Amino acid sequence: MSTLPPLPPGWSEHTGPDGTPYYFHRVSNTSTYTRPVLPGASSAAPPKPVKDKPKSKRPVPGTEWLRVETVQGNVFWTHTGRKASVWSVPEEIKELVDRLDAEGWEERGEIERVKAEAQELKRKLSEEQEQDEQKHKQNKKARVDDDSDEEKKPLPRPKKLKPEEAAAQALGVDKTTDKVNLSVEEAKALFMTLLQEKQINPLLPWDTSLPQFIHDPRYALLPSQNARKEVFDEYCKEQIRKQKEEKAKNGPAPKLTPEESFTALLERTCTSTRTSYTEWRRTVKKERAFLDFGRSERERENKFRAWLKVLGERKRRDKERAEKDFFDLLRQFDVNGELEWKDAKRTPGLADDPRYDAVGSSSLREELYNTFVKTVQRERAGEDAAPDEETRRKAKQERAERERAAKVRAQQEKVEADLGRARKVVGVEEAEAAFGSLLTDAVRDVTTFDAALPQLQTDPRFAQSAAVLNPHQQKTLFDAHVGRIRERHLKTLHDLFGAHAPRLDDPYPEGRVERSVPVERLRFTPSDVHAEFTRWSRQRLTTARADFETMLRENSFVEFWGRARKLGGEGAVKDKDADEDDVVGEGEEGGGTADLKALARGVGIEEVEKVLKGDKRYIVFDHVPEERERWVREYLERMAAPKLSVHVPEH
C-alpha cells in the first residue's frame, strides 16, 4: 500500500467539523484543502478524481447562453439552443459579459453565496459552542500548560484560494504577493510536465483535452490562454514526432496478400468449430481483409470451411496432448488409484502445475482420472498391454463403423443444408410478398419508415415478414414502395403544371397548384412546388429541343435539299441522248440538263419553314422565332453532301 509524501516545512494537517482534512501554513497564516508537496515530488497514490457537478446556472441576459458554476468552483458556458459547452467565454457574448462583470453581477451573486455560507457556519459554531459548554460542565479538568493551550487553539478555517494561490502553495512558494514568483520559462516547463503526467492524447484538440488538466494548480501558472495553447501545441508536435520516430524505427509492417490477410482474420475472429459462415460473415463483413479476398461469396465460404477443418484438427491435437500431459502429471505425483478424484486432486502441488489447467473442465479431469485408474489397475493385475487378435478385429470393426456413420452423417448434413437454403429462398420471397401487400394497404402517402413503423407493427403480416426479413431489408422495400408513390404523385403534379402552363414560356401558375391533391400527398411547401416547377420546365425545354432535332432529321424535304446544297462543282443531271453542247434548259421535251446544286440554292429558309410550320414540334418554339431559325440554319450547315451512285452503261 502506497503512502502520501511528507508535508513541506511549516505545513500541518487538520480536520474540519465536517470531517474534511485541510492544511495550515503558520508562516503565511493561510489554509487550503489541497495537499502541498515538496518541489519536484509527486504523490505516489494520487486521489481519485471527484465527479464535478453543476452548482448554479445564471442566464446571460438577451442570449441563449448560461454561465454554469460547478461544486468545485469551475465555470463554463453552455448554449441551450445548440446544446454545446465551452470553458472560455464565447466571442459573441464576450463584450456583454465584460460589461456585466463591470456592473458587478458576479459580485452580487458571490455576496449572496458568502452570506449563506456565513449563516450556515454561524449555526454550526453555535451548536459546537453549546456542546463544548455541556462538556465543560460535566468534565471539569485542570488546565494544561501554555504549550498545550497553544496547540488546542482553534485554527482559522481554510479560505477559498484562486488557482494561482493554490498553485503557489502546492509548489511550496511563499505567497507574500498576489502573483507566483515564477518565470515564464519555469511556468511553461511546469505546464509541459502537467501534460506529460496526464498523458494527453496529441491527436485531440485543445477544447477536448482541456477538462483533463484544468483542475490542476499548474494550469494557472501561465498568464494567458494563448500561452497555454502554445505550450499545448508544442507538446502535441513533440509527441507526434516521437510516435513517427518510433514507427520508423520499428519499420513498416510486412504487407500481406489478400489470402494471408483473410487467413489472419479467420484466426483472430473464428475460434470455435461450431460457428456458421452466416454468423461469422455478419460480424466481419465490413473488414477490409474480408472484402479484398475472393472473387465470389462461394470462394470465401470454401476458405471458411477449410479453416474449420484446420481448427478442428488443431483442437484435437491440443486435446490429445493435454490428456497425455495430464496422465504424465498423475504419474509424476505418484497418484495411486485407490483414492477418489475429490481426494486425489488435493495432492499438494498438483493443481499448481500448468498441465492441470490445460485440461478444460473439472468433469473432463475426473473422467481422465478414472481412465488413469483403470490403466493402473490393469498394470497391477499383470494384464498384457497389447490386445490379442480378437480385440484388434473388434477395434478395427468399430473404427470402420464410426467412419461409415460419420460419412453418412456428413452427407445428411449437406442435404439438410441444401434444403434449408432452398426453404430460406422461398421463405424470403413469401415474406417480401407479404410485406409488399402490407405496404400497399397501409402506406399511401409519402412518409418515412420510422413514422410509419408503429402503424405497420399492428398488422400480423409485419410480424410474419419480420421473422425472415431484417430491418434493413424491410426499410429497402419500404423506400422502394414510397418511391413509386412519389413518382406517381409527381407525374400527376407535372400534368397539372402542363394544364396551367401549356406553352414553354408560360410563367409559374401562382396560386393554382399549391393546394392540389398531389402537393398535399407529397407534403410540399410553396417553395418546394415552385422548385419542382422550375425543374419540370427545364426538363420540358430539353425534351422539346431534342424533339426539334428529331423533326429535322425525319423531314425528307429538309434532308434532300439540305444535302443537295453541299454538292461540289456543277451538280448536273444530264440526259444521255442530249448533245453536250446543246443546252436547252429544263423540261422533259427539251432533253437538256438541270443543275441540281443551282436548284438547291434556290430553296431558302422560308421554303423550309413553310414545310415545317404544321409540325407541333416546330410550333412550340413560336415564342423564340429567331432562335428557331438559327437552329435550322445550323442543322443545314452540319449536313454533308449526298453519296452519288455511278451507273456503267451496258454494251
The structure class reads mainly alpha
The count of strands amounts to 9
What number of structural domains do the residues give? Answer: 5
Largest sheet data: 4 strands, antiparallel
Distance between the termini: 126 Å
What is the 3D shape?
flat
| Strand numbers in spatial order across the main sheet | 4-5-6-7
Give average pLDDT, whole number.
Answer: 77
Q: What is the subunit arrangement here?
A: single chain
Describe the 3D structure.
The chain has 651 residues and is mainly alpha-helical. The chain folds into five domains: 11-181, no CATH class; 258-385, no CATH class; 404-469, no CATH class; 484-543; 555-574 and 591-644, no CATH class. It contains 25 helices and nine strands. It has helices at 94-103, 105-138, 146-152, 163-170, 184-198, 206-209, 225-250, 258-269, 277-284, 288-292, 297-332, 341-344, 354-358, 362-381, 389-442, 449-457, 460-466, 471-500, 517-522, 526-554, 556-564, 596-601, 605-612, 616-619, 625-638, and strands at residues 11-15, 21-25, 30-32, 54-59, 65-70, 75-79, 84-86, 572-574, 593-595. A four-stranded antiparallel sheet has the order 4-5-6-7, with no helix packed on it. Strands 1-2-3 form a three-stranded antiparallel sheet, with no helix packed on it. It has a two-stranded antiparallel sheet with strand order 8-9. A hairpin with a 5-residue loop joins strand 1 and strand 2 (21-25). The protein is flat and about 130 Å long. The termini are far apart. 8% of the residues are buried. Mean pLDDT is 77; it is low at 141-155, 160-164, 170-180 and 569-593. Pfam families: FF (PF01846), WW (PF00397). Residues 122-154 have a biased composition (Basic and acidic residues). This is WW domain-containing protein. Keywords: Repeat. Residues 33-63, 122-170, 379-401, 571-592 are annotated as: Disordered.
